[in-house]
Amino acid sequence: MQDLAWRAEAAGFAVLIAALRLMGVERASAFGGWLLRTLGPRTGTQRTVMRNLRIAFPDMDEAQRRRLARDQWDQTGRTFAELTMMDRLTPASGRIEIVGGERLDAIRDGGRPVVFVSGHLANFELMPAVILAAGIPCQVTYRAANNPYVDAMIRANRARYGVKLFAPKGGDGARELLAGLQRGESVALMNDQKFSEGPEVTFFGQPVNAAPGPSRLALRFGTVLQPMSVTRLPGVRFRLTVHEPIALRATGDKSADIARGVQAVTTFVEDRVREHPIDWFWVHKRWPDAVYAGLAPASDRA
């Protein structure tokens, strides 16, 4: 019965992908934005969005927070629609303005792997597309979908523009990442989602746990953390920025060195969210339960 349910879900997903691709980039993006802007505020996830905004921007006017909540639904819907046709949103499409591209050229020509880090900002899938288009061998990690048939379609869809996804799991996944770095391949990791373990760092003035993996890998291989970000521009266009690399210092205190790296990445993501709050993935429950429990009572509906 589980297999039948997965197959039915995958069939519906395949129809959705086909319909969106028929629409073309701009119409599909607009449709996705309209759909989630209309439905998102009516879902239970709206409460998570509003609570996140209250934590991040406690001094923001309530009406402004509600506008931001509505607008981020539009952005999220656009991103999900665009993910079905990323082969049409590569650097060759002319829709991506790249700032700091010379850093990617230096990484490619230097032959030394780096650890790319970022968060779920605007259409975050543009980052691996740009990395690979620059000619940098890179392992791109992701969280596999629960439905194996849907997961296979996601992988096939992204393979259209050269991204071979890798879903690390436990010790085996870590060993594969290490093996890739030893071969001279860079790795790309998102570092802005809830993590039950790992060092406790500060995000928007509140404690969070964050994954130590990127910092641990950079320290082990004596390389840098290379942050990147994406900002959405009008007309289904984007600005991708390759930022100043974060160099980690090995002092001999491994735990402290990793914690400093984790905080540096977390601060980088926070700075980008403050610059363009509409671009972040606010639907994710980022902070620990204790932080949410400490919020004053309020209406979190639309």
Overview of the structural elements:
With 302 residues, this protein is an alpha/beta fold. The chain contains eleven helices and nine strands. It has helices at residues 2-23, 25-39, 45-56, 62-82, 101-110, 126-133, 148-159, 170-182, 213-221, 254-275, 289-293; strands at 96-99, 115-118, 138-141, 165-166, 186-190, 200-203, 206-209, 225-233, 237-242. The strands form two sheets. A seven-stranded mixed sheet has the order 1-9-8-2-5-3-4, with helices on both faces. Strands 6-7 form a two-stranded antiparallel sheet. The model has no long low-confidence stretch (mean pLDDT 91).
Topology:
Layout: H1 2-23, H2 25-39, H3 45-56, H4 62-82, E1 96-99, H5 101-110, E2 115-118, H6 126-133, E3 138-141, H7 148-159, E4 165-166, H8 170-182, E5 186-190, E6 200-203, E7 206-209, H9 213-221, E8 225-233, E9 237-242, H10 254-275, H11 289-293
Parallel strand pairs: 1-9, 2-5, 2-8, 3-4, 3-5
Antiparallel strand pairs: 6-7, 8-9
Helix pairs in contact: 1-2, 1-7, 2-4, 9-10
Strand order of the biggest β-sheet = 1-9-8-2-5-3-4
Number of helices: 11
- Number of extended strands: 9
Low-confidence stretches: none
How is the main sheet built?
7 strands, mixed
Alpha-carbon distance between the two ends: 37 Å
The percentage helix is 40-55%
